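note to self: the first set is below, dont mix up w the second
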Amino acid sequence: MTLMPYIQQSGSKQAANNPANGRETAADTSEKFVQNLQALEEGELAVDVYETDEAVVIQSTIAGVRAEDLDITLSGDMLTIKGERKRDLDVPEHLSLYQECFWGPFSRSIILPVEVKIEKIEAVMKNGVLTLVLPKAHKERTKIISVKNEEE
């Protein structure tokens, strides 16, 4: 997209030679934004995390990503979601009016607040929303320790 400068009818030479009069145009700002996005190696996935009595639940909008293109791993107390949002259509840069969506690889790591039952974790994708349900391990947190009396 090219923005044409507004030149007053009287037509000053300065305005004609410097279309933006020293100001950054919307096209310049948009181009810089896209360049900054492209410079990022990986995008960060936005998530909602909440806890119920029985589970930790993680939700994320992942529209445009197929379930088979996601890699979800749990290592210790760190859950990592990785994937890639692939663009189906290659639009030439000169035809783009806006480019705000992130295309490319993304990831997000979340430290879990409690131990979970690894074998019971469920992941479901519905209407572009990924929902992970991680059932809590419910380990006993308090133990009474009896002291043996040994006489010498």
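second set (the one i keep forgetting abt)
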Amino acid sequence: MNIAGSIVLRHNSNTVWESLTNPSIMQESIPGCDCFAKINENQFQADIAFKLSLLSIKFVVSLEILESTPDRHYLFNASGKGGMSGDASGQCNIHLTATDTGSELCYDAAVEIEGMLKKVAEPLIRKKAHGLIEKYFVRFQKAIDENQ
């Protein structure tokens, strides 16, 4: 499954760049995130829970930054272990561009889902993912505002 989009943020590229790897901002921003921890300079771990129809799902997610160009680009891998619910993995490209009013963040992710999630809920996952992304960006902007 591919998920792509963009959003114009009211913050400059440097602020957005730094916020994308700030554990407290990420924990505040990701819907259902109970913990977001920095393991080392390029690795993070998060505990994320959400509901999908009647399923309550909790993932332990590992993130690894593969490439980065300050204030402009991230490429990262993510893998989530959801126990009996199944697993998810993917890779995401994030590009930042300065605008007159802040910055534009473009994202392009390829996600693969395995296990019960794929068998039972695959049609719902795309819709849920878009909803979570919208919530994430609203919360992300608010978290940046509160942490400046």
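remember for set 2: The CA atoms of residues 35 and 47 lie 5 Å apart.
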